[in-house]
Structure formats: structure tokens, C-alpha cells
Amino acid sequence: MDLSLSSFARSSIPPPLKSCNLTSLSNFPNYSFKSRNFSLTPLISRQNRRIRAQYSCNSGSGGGGGGDDDGFVVDEVPHLTNFLPDLPSYPNPLQQNLAYTIVKKNFVSPEDVVAQKIVVQKGSPRGVHFRRAGPREKVYFKSEEVRACIVTCGGLCPGINTVIREIVCGLNYMYGVHDILGIEGGYRGFYSKNTIQLTPKVVNDIHKRGGTFLRTSRGGHDTDKIVDNIQDRGINQVYIIGGDGTQKGAALIYKEVEKRGLQVAVAGIPKTIDNDIAVIDKSFGFDTAVEEAQRAINAAHVEVESVENGVGIVKLMGRYSGFIAMFATLASRDVDCCLIPESPFYLEGQGGLFEFIEQRLKENGHVVIVLAEGAGQEYVAQSMHAVSEKDASGNRLLLDVGLWLSQKIKDHFTKVQKMAVNMKYIDPTYMIRAIPSNASDNIYCTLLAHSAVHGAMAGYTGFTIGPVSSRHAYIPIDRVTETTKTIKLTDRMWARLLSSTNQPSFLKGSPVMQERVDKETIEMIDNMKITSI
Ligand SMILES: Nc1ncnc2c1ncn2[C@@H]1O[C@H](COP(=O)(O)OP(=O)(O)OP(=O)(O)O)[C@@H](O)[C@H]1O
Ligand SMILES: O=P(O)(O)OC[C@H]1O[C@](O)(CO)[C@@H](O)[C@@H]1O
Ligand SMILES: [Mg+2]
């Protein structure tokens, strides 16, 4: 009997919850629970995807249940059997795999889920959970019948090649799948290019190189043409590596595949140097990027320390989210000020950037500023009277805030303050993105790739893989695309940064900031004197 959560979802029978003390449940004779009076109501929402099992444990005087509603929610990933109910399953070939036979618990239990929030309060709802990633006892593909393909889309990021390599090797070595195609040059490669055959030998060394072995592109997503091509080529597993835009494209592919009733598993592997993908803890390549950024910050620091009134500016990537800038700043300790898209800043007057620079120059003789590329875009656009341009995927092309800020600082100090500054502007953005992944990212990429392979073989589809609260989980694609992850100015991490650099918070005097952050927070930060300069 299939005890997987998807089978519960399909049959509207909620999963057995070990946390509720139940004795028996006559409605569900196949499951035994330990408790007395119990009633149970499954609620299905979010297009039948999110399964909410509401448990009422009426156990009298504090009988140890989870309260009236313990708010346990599973954010369900689609399964091929949702639209192909007669699909046969097979024993997982990993049962015969030498490496896996010695593992104590070979397969992930179907009931294992990962909690999105791990910090909880007594009595609070148990919250959203995702299906835990890993190999399942049953698979829905015969290895010799699998024809997989891999595509990479969007910008570069350290580690893409490791993910490609590990999908190929994982499919080969764990599942005996030998037919794997590389789609070249992003989504448009499906319908405009020949494929390349990928074998462990072909991909053996690629993790040592930056970039993507399969090449990439922006734009060119045509769902019908892509799915026609998948169908024509007899592809039944699609591995799609890319950022938010790519994952939106993957969701459309999955929906079209479902509409056509094809036995095709669609697996998304989130990639973004900006670390702006929602739900997952961190994206691969991010650590490598932060580490590489240290070299640029260090260079800026060495330069400005060696001259009089040295002002170093380092521009890092981060279109809408300043994660690289924030973490690189926190890691370095040589940075005086970090500017990110989420926190509007201003230059002139009390509490402004110029005042802060002047003070640091007087105190230390130099200042280092780390700037995310998406910061201050509104000012640059105003001063350059620039027309907003877009790339092939529809992303707004950013103006060079680093050049703009360098000029503004030079002008201010020379003309207004009559004080010459020694400006050193470093733009290492592409250098940080184009390198191979470091050791820990390599391990992370391996886990992602293997989890994607296990998920597709187990018949899941329309899913993205990633760590949630430090455990790898299968997440419905639209959960990761519905919002962009940004730095919360009211979170403790940003407070850590402010108290480490002692930079202005720009809360006072910035109408935009006052709109974003509530009055109470402004007062609280003021009282904490983080803004004091
Ligand atoms: N809303 C969408 N629907 C379908 N396809 C999309 C959508 N947005 C983007 N795409 C496609 O996804 C691919 C990559 O998108 P994009 O260039 O925005 O990069 P990305 O995946 O967001 O990665 P990153 O921003 O990290 O570089 C492109 O081929 C683009 O056509
Ligand atoms: O110049 P490209 O390749 O379009 O990429 C630039 C953009 O890609 C990103 O690195 C996201 O992948 C952004 O930070 C950056 O703005
Ligand atoms: Mg994107």
C-alpha cells in the first residue's frame, strides 16, 4: 500500500501525525493512533496542493494532544500519478546499489516532512512543511526507459557545472540511467539547437571550471515549442537550472506537460548569485561569491589605507536584494558602509552619506563603501535622465550606481568641502560570478543534484529542490516564484551589520525609508543609537 503523502493528498486522507496522541480512528482503519477522543478534518486549499490537516484532540483535562488545532500544513508537490493514475511503480534500483545497501535507513520515509519554521513558540501552530528530499522506496520510471535532459538559463553563478555533473553522475551511478541530453544555450536551445549526449566521462572535469558547460541565455522561453520538443525527442525527465525567471518558465513547462498528459517529470534547481529565491535557506554559489568578494574589498582597503583621504567603493551584484553586499561586509570588517537596494540612502545633510564619509576620513583617513548594484538606482536614473531598458528576459537593465556615486563623492568633497579625495572604484561583479564553486558549495551542489534525481525518479514533478531549515526539501515551484527574497531591515541580520559598521541607518530624513519601516521601528533604532555617527 502506498503510504506516501501524495497518496494521502489524492485520497484526502490526512497523514498520520505522530505528535498527536490518539488511540484509534475508526474512519481510517489502516492507521493506528494513540489517544482517546479524536476528530480530524482535512482542509484542502491552494488548488488542492496545500494539505492542511486540522486535528482536534479532545483529550479532556490536558490529555497531551496538540490543542484544538495544531495547524499542521504540508505544502504538497505534484506527482505524476495526479494526472496519470495508472502509472506503474517499481522497486528503487538503489536497493541493489552497494553504496546504499550499508546505509541504515535506505529510503526517506513518506511521512518525513521538513518544517519551514524551526523557531516556534509553545502553543503556536505547527505551520508549513515541505516533503523531505531523498530516495523513495518506489520509482515511477524504469531506468532503461529514462531519457533525461538538462538545461541552464539566466545569469552565471559558481557551481552550475557541479550541478550538471552530479545530475549526470547521479542518474548513471545511482539509477543506471545512461540516456542524458544536454540542451545548449538556455530555453531557446530546446527548439533551435541540437542536443549533446552527456556521460560521466564527458562531464568528469567540468566542476573545476566556472560558467556553464551547457551555456546559457536570457529570453526565448516558448512553452509550446519547448514541450513539443520534449515530446518529439521522447524526453521524460527535465532538469532545469536557473533563477526566478527560469523557475517561472519551468512551472509553465510542467503545467503544459500535465495538460498534455505526458509522463515527464519536471525538476527545477534554483540558481541565483543574488540569493533572492524565496523559501530556500541559501542558493548555491552564494558562499563562493561572498568569499571572492573579500578579495575586492581587501584590495580597496589596501589602496585607500595607503593614500590620503582614500575613498574605496566596491560594487557587488544584487539586483533587488543586497545579500552579497551584506554578507561580504559582515565577513570583511574593513567596510565602513554597506548600501543595498532594500535600504534607500541619501547623500546630503544630517545623517546623510557625505556627512558620514567626512567623519570617517577625519577619524581614520580612509573609508570603504560596499555597494550592491541595485542600490540607489532611482538617483542614478534621475541624474542621467536614463530611459529604462530591459534585457531579453524582461529584467530592467541597471545603471552603474558605482560610477555615479564615485563622481558624486568626488564633486562634493572637491567643490563643497574643498578637500581632495583619492577615489578607488572597483567593480568585480562578473569576476565574482564567473569562478568555480568552493568546497562547501560543491557539496551543496551535489546534494541538490542528487535530490533532484531522487525526486524525478520517484515521480514528483513541478518541484524545486533546496534546503529549508537546513534540510533538503521538495518545494512546489510556484512557492519559490511568488515572492523575491530580500533583506528585511527589521531583521536581526541587518541590525548586526549596522552595529558592526556603525553606519547611518538613513531612517531619519528619508521619506522612502519612513514609508517602508514603521514608526515604532524608527524610534526603536533611534533609541539604540545605531544611527549615531
Ligand atoms: N515569467 C516567465 N515565464 C516564462 N519564462 C520566463 C519568465 N521569466 C523569465 N523566463 C525565462 O527564463 C529564462 C531565464 O530568465 P532570467 O533571464 O530572468 O534569469 P533568471 O532565471 O531569473 O536567473 P538570474 O536572474 O539569476 O540570472 C529566460 O529564458 C526567460 O525567457
Ligand atoms: O549581465 P547579465 O549576464 O545579464 O547579468 C547581470 C545580472 O545577473 C545577476 O547576476 C543575476 O543573475 C544580477 O545580479 C545581475 O544584475
Ligand atoms: Mg532573475
Structure write-up:
Strands 1, 2, 3, 5, 6, 8, 9, 10, 11, 12, 17 and 18 form a 12-stranded mixed β-sheet that branches. The protein has a 4-stranded parallel β-sheet with strand order 14-15-13-16, sandwiched between helices. A two-stranded antiparallel sheet has the order 4-7. It has 533 residues and is α/β, with parallel strands linked by helices. It has 2 domains: 80-283 and 437-482, Rossmann fold (3-Layer(aba) Sandwich), CATH 3.40.50.450; 291-435 and 488-528, 3-Layer(aba) Sandwich (Rossmann fold), CATH 3.40.50.460. The protein has helices spanning 5-11, 46-49, 80-83, 98-101, 160-175, 189-192, 200-203, 223-233, 244-260, 286-305, 323-332, 353-364, 377-384, 401-416, 429-433, 439-457, 477-481, 492-501, 511-516, 519-528; strands at 38-45, 50-57, 72-75, 90-91, 113-115, 127-132, 138-139, 148-152, 180-182, 196-197, 237-242, 265-270, 310-316, 337-339, 366-372, 422-426, 463-468, 471-476. Helix 12 (353-364) links the parallel strand 14 and strand 15 (366-372). The N and C termini lie far apart (67 Å). The longest helix has 20 residues, at 286-305. Helix 5 (160-175) crosses helix 16. Residues 154-155, 243, 272-274, 317-319, 373, 391, 398, 433 line the site of 6-O-phosphono-beta-D-fructofuranose.
